[in-house]
């Protein structure tokens, strides 16, 4: 399937991938569960649940672990749907975030030290003004369950210099951007 290109990035930096993260989005009745991050990277922004992939852990294991730690829920049908690669020019490094969705989960949702409060948001009412500036670029694909890869270039912590999004019909091409 031919990828859809949203914007073309002229620069193709070969920056070293510095950190590997996960992000999980639970879905129910056209709503998604988000948490307000209380500390560290992305403090003060609403986001899905996730964190750094630890040594000897798969991205899937990390996704499950962080979900449990941050909102007390156990994922039953995690689906790897996308990858977002951030090229951080100000830091001369790249971060990669593996994106998962999930519709079957068990437990009682609870805020945590890192994500508080947590709240279900209708797909049409996502609080983009209180989120990472890149969120509106790729959330529509995630909400729509499209396999996608996104490459976002930040020239400083708050400024997006360019973005490119590609949509695929399976996961294998998505993962190439994370290599
Ligand atoms: N530009 C960006 N846009 C976005 O939507 N999410 C981002 C992002 N950059 C990083 N993230 C996500 C990835 C990850 O889920 C989270 C940051 O994770 P943390 O640094 O909080 O990791 P940990 O939970 O492992 O940290 P600690 O337990 O505080 O060491 O933010």
Automatic annotation (TrEMBL):
It is an enzyme of class 3 (hydrolase). Its cofactor is Mg(2+). Residues 15-144 form the Nudix hydrolase domain. Keywords: Hydrolase, Magnesium, Metal-binding, Nucleus. GO terms for biological process: DNA protection. Its EC number is 3.6.1.56. It catalyses: N(6)-methyl-ATP + H2O = N(6)-methyl-AMP + diphosphate + H(+); 8-oxo-dATP + H2O = 8-oxo-dAMP + diphosphate + H(+); N(6)-methyl-dATP + H2O = N(6)-methyl-dAMP + diphosphate + H(+); 8-oxo-dGTP + H2O = 8-oxo-dGMP + diphosphate + H(+). Oxidized purine nucleoside triphosphate hydrolase which is a prominent sanitizer of the oxidized nucleotide pool. Catalyzes the hydrolysis of 2-oxo-dATP (2-hydroxy-dATP) into 2-oxo-dAMP. Also has a significant hydrolase activity toward 2-oxo-ATP, 8-oxo-dGTP and 8-oxo-dATP. Through the hydrolysis of oxidized purine nucleoside triphosphates, prevents their incorporation into DNA and the subsequent transversions A:T to C:G and G:C to T:A. Also catalyzes the hydrolysis of methylated purine nucleoside triphosphate preventing their integration into DNA. Belongs to the Nudix hydrolase family. PANTHER family: 7,8-DIHYDRO-8-OXOGUANINE TRIPHOSPHATASE (PTHR43758), OXIDIZED PURINE NUCLEOSIDE TRIPHOSPHATE HYDROLASE (PTHR43758:SF2). This is Oxidized purine nucleoside triphosphate hydrolase. It comes from Zophobas morio.
